[in-house]
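Comment on the following before class.
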Amino acid sequence: MGHAFRRLVRAPAFSLTVLLTLGLAIGANALIFSVVNAVLLKPLPYADPDRLVGVWHTAPGLQVDALNQSPTTYFTYRDAGVFQDIGMWRNDAVSVTGRGEPEQVSILSVSDGTLPILGIRPALGRVFTPDDDAPGSADSVVLTHGYWMRVFNGRSDAVGQSLVIDGAPHEIIGVLPEGTRFLRGNPQLVLPFRFDRSEVYVGNFSYAALARLKPGGSIVQASADIARLIPGIPDRFPMAPGFTRAMFDDVKLGPNVRPLAQDVVGDIGNILWVLLATVAVVLLVACANIANLFLVRAEGRQQELAVRTALGASRTSVIGELLSEAWLLSLASGVLGLGLAFGGIRLLVALNPARLPRLDEIAIDPIVLLFTLGAAATSGLLFGLLPVIKYANPRLSMALKEGARGSSDGPERHRARNTLVVAQVAFTLVLLVASGLMVRTLLAMRDVSPGFTDPDRVLTMRISIPDAVIADPLAALDAHERIAARIRALPGVEVVGLSSAITLDGNHSSDPVWVEDQPLPEGQMAPLRRYRWISPDSFAAMGNRLIAGRDFTWDDIHARRPVAIISDGLAREFWGRPEAALGKRIRNSPRNQWREVVGVVGDERDDGVARPAPAVAYWPIAMNDFWDQDLFVSRYLSYAIRTPRVRGAGFLREVQQAVWDVNPNLPVARVAMLEEYYQQSLAETEFAVVILGIAAGVTLVLGLVGLYGLVAYTVAQRRREVGIRIALGAGAPSVQQMFVRQGASLAGLGLAVGLVVAFAVTRLMSALLFGVTAFDPLTYGAVVAALAAVTLAATWLPARRAARVDPADALRAE
């Protein structure tokens, strides 16, 4: 090993080339694997995570695969003991006052079993008991560690103090441990639901649920128990107002119990596996390049190895000599790769480019260390074995003959290097095609209208007016209207709109929509459609256009006129064209009044620009006779403010002051530019494009270097032959064509193999593509043409040098 180290030190250019090439490739693999390990492979950071499940429903009658829980299903499953325990939860926000400026903070609402199911124990005090979660119990709250440190400076006497939440004092009963995270959320406060089972009804599927399987239990068993219990739910609880047992049966509610990790990870697993495969290909190409270097290096040592064998060296010692250099370099490259991966993780955590779940768990842990060590050792074996296979048992006479003066480089000696170059070109084509398809996907996504315009000119924020702050719902409505008017009066503000949700912000609400002139059979449930409550000017503020009819007016809202606006998709679904929807009537429940469609607006890509725009029913922010309420008023509204002053110094402070001029107890929350929501919808695709692009670029460089090096080496080995050919009258073009033909044939074979592999591999990417197929001819054609051109250039450069060989110099040198 010491001898090998000294040989590498005496060849610094060779050693540094291998070290940097392999170190970068191993570092990229370690980085992406650390993400895959933390997000997909590592168990959730809770007690016995393999027994934790997410509890959802299927609803084929509504064409829904993942329907949430309702209080009635929660009580049913818990009472029946389907699981060891089940808990419901929902992310929300509240206003906190009495401790400096009012602020809105994120909260987690839970049932009493939710935190214990996850094995979360308090650092101080206690978590909720069934008594805390019972209706009529005293208001209580549990603080997260971060909120406790920020607001109470980590004082232990915080437990027992009071925190004013939505205008009502809540006793602080506990503090969660540092680092506690709840699935993908990061709430600041935890509150109990306190459902009253005497008041719940079958419906309101608005809550998420998790559960712990019984010891020895399985998802299949739990699903069977739920399927058995579902038909009896309407016998235990009343139906929602206006709904019947036949409608419940028509939904065909069924179980959808799945590992809780699936709820945490979401869909990003598809992208991460593709990226891990991508960097693995980069490592293979790097190994192929390095193997070529080692082959050339071993060929130069043939005579040395033959002499050592003749002097009695064993085959084992020769193999050890050849492999020791490879393993030394691979080990050093592994150390370098770990350093690069560590820096990459720090950067990834800081940027969070794709909103990765479990981001704080990404680290160089023992599993990643073992993976990196394995990648380094395997790489050393891959590029170290070829010289061993070819030269570990050298024949003295053949070695001396091939190394003698005047010998020519035969095809046998090039076979391994040719194969490696073909593989490099093939892998390069595969990655370029994958990268090209993702670029086409990103471009197609950017061409899609998200349902708004100029998002960089729209500031969004959320204002909640709870009952404890303004008890009268009409007074709360008036406060929202006056706040909007004051903001509209600020310099530079063009228009202000209010809505229950901002497009792409993740706030969704769906319920059935009945259509008057298209009655359903008795007992059939109307289809679920997206709901949104809006004020006048909401569409103008977002930059969405009215296709037909008119917008709401404040007179509509003050008079609570029965009017509605629908999206273009919903209008076409029921009436074929937008204009035909005007004057038609819809409603939200068989028991509520009909509401006239007065406008049709453009579709909004509310689920992401790569997903179809949902059909939406827009309701006024104040209505009579909606659901089971005589008067319905939206108290929790998002504001969209269109102005060129979005980034202006002091503008947000002016907005905050406008709010406080109306009510000093109202905090402004979730402040963001609309552009941020838009970019978030593209983040996963952009992340994949960047990683694939970098990987494809590195692979392209390595492939071209390999092809160039092979042809250049061939030219050097056949220099005497070239000199003789030129001396005998061969023209420069014919000499050049000889070497170009060799490189072109290898590149052509690599392109052919790469196309076959690309056709097979890109099919696996179909779920990631948008606006382009996995076999897009434009992408394939452009990649093949570009790669063919650059590979020919890499061949032509050394071939041109061969055509300029001076015959006298070539013969004299030999």
About this structure: The longest strand covers residues 85-97.
